[in-house]
Amino acid sequence: MIGNIIRRYLFVAAAVAAAAALILLFVLHSENDLLIGAIGSIAVLFYGLGNLQVTRSQNRRILELKRQAEKLRNADFGERLSAESGDALGELATVFNDMRDKLRLTTISRDYVDSILAGMNDAIIVTSNEGRIKLANPATQHLLGYEEGELTDMPIDFVVDSEKSGSLLAHPASGVPREAYFESKYGESIPVSYTSSTLDGKGAEPGDRIFAAQNITERRRAEKRIRYLARIDSLTKVPNRMQFQHLLQRAIARARRAERSVCLLYLDVDRFKDINDTFGHLAGDTTLETVAGRLAAALPENSIIGRLAGDEFAVIVDSGVVERLKRRDIEKLAQKVLDRLADPFFVQGHEVFMTASMGIAYYPRDAANVIDLIRNADAALYHSKRSGGNVFSWYTPKMNVAAVERLMTKSKLKRAFERDELLVHYQPKYDLETGEVFGAEALVRWELPERGMILPSDFIPIAEETNLIIEIGEWVLDKVCEDFRYWQQSVSSPGRVSVNLSLKQLRQPKFSQRIGGVLRSYEVSPTSLELEITETTLMEDPKRTIKLLDQLYALGLHLAIDDFGTGYSSLSALQQFPISTLKIDRSFIHDVATNPDDATIVSTIVQMGRNLNMDVVAEGVENEDQLALLQRLGCTYVQGLLFGDPMSSDSYLELLLAQVNGTDTHRALFA
Ligand code: C2E
Ligand code: MG
Ligand code: MG
């Protein structure tokens, strides 16, 4: 009896130990270990059973237990056993059920994890303490071209391109992504981004690590492309401004160490705008490509060429290119470049004659850093331009001031326009015979918060260069129409308002329709508006301009020649245009009362205008002597500082109202 009891408890203990061993084995080891463990445990169970003295019903229960155990051996979880009776077999059934449930749960979660790993796009590798691969998911095999199991037990660095990446184990595990190169079975180097962490959960062994890696070949390719696009000018394939500055920076650093010089040549195509305007943008692009090609051909190998903006190019000449940067050698090189650029070439069947201007500055003599060197070379370039182009100039400190202003304006102008910092002022025009306000000229202004009012002569030429002039022109026209409408609410006739027009605006497609549309939308009569076009603009492409002006004239608009006398137009040339007003440039008015020559010129212009049936306006009238003389010469209208500064829209309205009320103080000047 006692022996039976002892045997029963021994058996239960053996069964519990077996189950525990089985679970432990499962959790800690691979599938093979699990199977061996399960078989071992079942053997222990049956050893215990064999030692039991059994009844028939017990026999049935034992057979059922055996059947379920066999199922379990075949990876079938079968059913739970009845564990109702409290005898040894009941306890055995309870232990068995427990073991079955745990085994089932662990198997399910293991399958679950396996299916997750199999479904992952990231390559997952688990390594042991020694850095040997314990597990590699299908994505790893796919990435590296290995078969299942081939990587097991290999050192992790076996899959790493050691030349490019070194050892993966050299870096402590961290969630921070790092980059490395893996090497495929076929020796292909694959860039990856990976994270690694230590595994310290249930079942992990000390030192186990998990690596999760992503193939970043595509990302690398995209980055390379972006870097290329960010650094190379897409049209000419030479470094762009950013990259050029970077290269110049490096050249200066090298020169500083070696106590040598760096020479910067800054170039700009002369009248590039004309090539663009005449032959179109495609021809402009071809020209720029030609410039880049010719620069490369004319310069020594290793010279660095960059495109800094539109038609601006620059070249770095340092001791890597020309051994000794003697002034005479640089001059020879500069002349060679200019000569090479001046060779005519063909664009769309047209022979194009192109020249360029150049500015040259030296590091360290002219500037100590990149920005100053570029700026000073640009100042020298500007000097070459002003000397008529097709020449080079060396930088001298005198040139700097103007260039700083120019650069500053260029970058700020676009922002100013977007920020609504532009305004329109009005300069009244007086009828010389009656002394009445006849109308006004709209003049754009730029109010810079830290610098005050900037006049158009300082920014219109830049706006012309950047095409911003079209937007500015449209905005001015809109503003003028808006103001006109506002004045009309208080006075019946605000007079004739003139607006300055640039060639670019005039050449816009459907310009006359556009302007007609604006006038209609503000309900302003075309006869209230006058467009001022400079003499030089008119003569740029007379045939084309006549057509455009005819369309505007047909709308009912007045047209005026601005700054007359500064161009070279002949009388017969002027007669072709539908012009009704001639504005004498203020340079002739300035000394008209004191210089007989100027008086003769003005008198001739007035006569000529009258013969052509035109109104003649004298600009820039500053004093009463000028006014009196112009009256005598029979000029029609005057405008100028004699009547005050150009004024705001509100002030102009006040002036119109004063005139209606007979309180305009300027009227007395005409008596
Ligand atoms: P502009 O059309 O010949 O305008 C006359 C210029 O002479 C104005 O200069 C005016 O302020 C100035 N002025 C008038 N009376 C006197 C005077 O008695 N003495 C002196 N010394 N100057 C006087 P501003 O406003 O600087 O404009 C310069 C030029 O900028 C204008 O010359 C015009 O060609 C251009 N401009 C002005 N506004 C616009 C615009 O909206 N669009 C375009 N495309 N050009 C504009
Ligand atoms: Mg004008
Ligand atoms: Mg003018």
Could you describe the 3D structure shown?
By secondary structure, the protein is an alpha/beta fold. It has four domains: 2-117; 120-222, Beta-Lactamase; 232-392, Reverse transcriptase/Diguanylate cyclase domain (Alpha-Beta Plaits); 424-665, Alpha-Beta Barrel (TIM Barrel). Helices cover 50% and strands 19% of the residues. The protein is built from 24 helices and 21 strands. The strands form four sheets. It has an eight-stranded mixed β-barrel with strand order 13-14-16-17-18-19-20-21, surrounded by four helices. Strands 2-1-5-4-3 form a five-stranded antiparallel beta sheet. β7 and β8 form a beta hairpin. The chain is elongated, with a radius of gyration of 45 Å. The termini are far apart. Residues 562-563, 583, 619 line the site of one magnesium ion. Residues 441, 500, 532, 562 line the site of one magnesium ion.
